[in-house]
Write a structure and sequence with these properties.
Blueprint lengths: L1 H32 L3 H14 L4 H13 L3 H14 L4 H13 L3 H14 L4 H13 L3 H14 L4 H13 L3 H14 L5 H13 L2 H14 L4 H13 L3 H16 L1
Length: 257
């Protein structure tokens, strides 16, 4: 009887603690919703005292500290969570973003690398990682990252665009052209791939292709003054003076309307 009674009492204590923890967590969420972040933290800390094994609540606490712009405190909490659960995707992403905000780029890259190795369907993390490598001018690592991205997301126009940029920087014009064209197939409304192709064709001295692309952009957006001016300057540059003059006169008339 005593043994069973003790077990029953233990269950009641656990249940009461669970309910109490949930109460403080709920209060914390309400305070957060009302913009009272300090109060939300107090309540959440009480909930964690009662249920210290809840990694979810600890992550929520880190997010609250982030809202207070206390990145270091948030980072310390996240580190402790990762000690207990090193492969948790959401925590690793948060850890990467925190380190990125704190300019701890190597730690951010390591976190993002781990995320995509565990879950290669994290499209946004490939983009963050690729961008970090691009900022460092580490084109080989960036290329590897964007290639992994399009292996998992073949329709990623962003992935194809940056692969094109890297190939262009490496002097691989044919490969770059193919990637920019693929980008436009996937998203015809983008202007950037047109201008990257124009830059490529100019460098190669491909006059007809350059002019054709300028005209394609203007056909899509006749009011694009920047492109019209660039085409005018290009006409002048390649000795097509009459075309340049005609275009500049037309632009002048439009400006008077």
């Amino acid at each position: 009887y005593f043994k069973n009674n003790t077990l029953s009492e233990d269950k009641k204590v656990v249940s009461a603690e669970s309910e109490s923890s949930y109460y403080y967590f709920t209060e914390s969420q309400l305070e957060r919703k009302n913009g009272n972040i300090d109060e939300a933290i107090k309540h959440l800390n009480k909930a964690i005292e009662i249920d210290p094994e809840s990694l979810y609540m600890q992550r929520e606490l880190a997010i609250l500290y982030l809202q207070l712009k206390d990145s270091e405190k948030a980072l310390n909490i996240i580190k402790k969570i990762l000690e207990k659960d090193p492969d948790n995707i959401q925590t690793l992403i948060l850890y990467g973003k925190l380190n990125q905000n704190l300019k701890k780029v190597d730690a951010a890259k390591s976190a993002y690398e781990k995320v995509v190795s565990i879950d290669p369907k994290q499209e946004s993390i490939f983009l963050l990682l690729g961008d970090l490598y691009m900022q460092e001018d580490n084109l080989n690592k960036a290329l590897k990252t964007y290639k992994q991205l399009i292996q998992n997301f073949p329709e990623s126009h962003v992935g194809h665009f940056f692969i094109g940029k890297i190939y262009a920087a490496q002097g691989k014009a044919v490969k770059a052209e193919k990637e920019f064209q693929k980008t436009l197939v996937l998203n015809p409304n983008l202007e950037e791939p047109y201008f990257e192709l124009i830059k490529l064709y100019k460098k190669q001295g491909k006059k007809k292709k350059t002019i054709k692309l300028f005209k394609e952009v203007l056909k899509k957006d006749p009011q694009n003054i920047r492109t019209a001016l660039e085409l005018g300057y290009y006409y002048h540059e390649v000795g097509m003076k009459k075309n340049a003059e005609k275009l500049f006169i037309d632009l002048g008339k439009r400006s008077l309307k």
